[in-house]
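Onboarding guide, step 5: your first structure request.
Type a short instruction followed by the sequence, for example:

Predict the 3D structure of this protein.
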Amino acid sequence: MEAETSHCVYLVGAGPGDPRLMTLRGRELLARADCVVYDALVPRVMLGWCREDCEFIDVGKRGRRHTLAQAQINNLLVECAQRHTCTVRLKGGDPFVFGRGGEEAAALQTAGVTFEVVPGISSAIAGPAYAGIPVTHRDCCSQLTIFTGHPALGKEEGILDVSSIASSRGTKVMLMGMEQLGDSMRALQSAGLAGNTPAAAVQWATTARQLHVQATVATLAEAARKAHLSSPAVVIIGQVVQLADALDWRKHLPLSGLRIIVTRTREQVGSLSHSLRELGAEVAEMPTLRIVPPPNKQDFAKAVVGSPHHDWLVFSSPNGVERFFEAFFSVYEDLRELGGSRIAALGPGTAQQLRKRGLMVDVMPKKAVAEELIAEFDRKADDFGGLANSTMLWIHAQQARDVIRCELEKRKAIVDECIAYDVAPGNAHYASMLLEEGADLITFTSSSAAVHFVRMGLNLPEHCCIASMGPITSAALHKLGMPPALEAGLHTIPSLVEAICRWAGTMRK
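The system replies with structure tokens like these:
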């Protein structure tokens, strides 16, 4: 029987820290995992890729602080395999590069448990790369040596051949060696490595917290101490370190070094998160709310069935568009059965979702604000003979503001409502884990996201600023005692991204 249809443990490498460096296979397994056993250095955002009913078990080790001993972790994996079809053992970096994945695989094999190894990108490669240091270069070296600095070099006989490491050509990369960095550098020099050999240390590689220093083997420990570098970090020794200044590609990105939390729903985080990441930010997606079915499904179904009989369809949100057409095509087979209804959309994001379905919009304000939609109706009233006696179906969320209905009725329109969805709080436990990692900025794209953030009992990380999508969201944030540091000029994702870039530039001056 194939592993995927039997009880199986997957030893998955989470990569060096940037969630985008997770393999496709690893993310696929997290999406269907029944249980995830994870390490301390695993980005918490990865746990958000799992099902809501997934079991999470923290077995993290940091320095000398161990949640569980390795033998206990081995036994735990065997137990999880007995209880779950798909258990993911999520390990930082690569499972077999100083990750003790070999020991776990051996324990599973001895217990007769099916397992699969999913390699990950090691910090030994990614750490230097994100600091502009290629571990090999035709002009410098064609050899790479990776070794552990735990315990300190030369302190425990039989673990490492320090003389061979010191005399080896090419680049040397040391993992897990920051606690005893000075001792290790002195041991290498005693074994014959020149003290003026270029050296660097990169902490929290590939994340927004990344720091690095360049020095020499003789001076690296002191340079790291002055820069307050500690674990987790990777140490690079060799001539390739001198290439860092020229090849540090991240320093030119406007949002490099910033950790930004995005609070949109799971369905909506994509475009904002992608834009911020492309500009260099580390993005953590933390939905403070989730989309759920409307409270009265029967009324929703009746409204959708009757939609072709209206002169206007008025959509308040992208989520409303998606939920409406999911229901529409469960009843009707052809979009043309929608009839000749005119269409109004509350903002560019909603209009974009309609265009994906081949529908052009007759009325759309530049800002996704109810008052602006009404103003746009007034500006274009002569184009369609006014609104008096027009039948209009307003598609919206359960908790939408009543402005659109009230203002349309003032203009003598006949307004029916179609409540397409409701919102509920997100996963508070997952959100708390993300917030514990800290953030420079948190984005709110709706007042509902801000309200649910407070209802979940969450607190902003220290020194974290707030970005607002627009005036309605800003008003809600002020009311909640969380005044925003910046606000988008237009109620659009590109405008919000532009505002964040301006804010970041100001903060760096």
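Each response can be followed by summary notes, for example: The CA atoms of residues 37 and 57 lie 5 Å apart.
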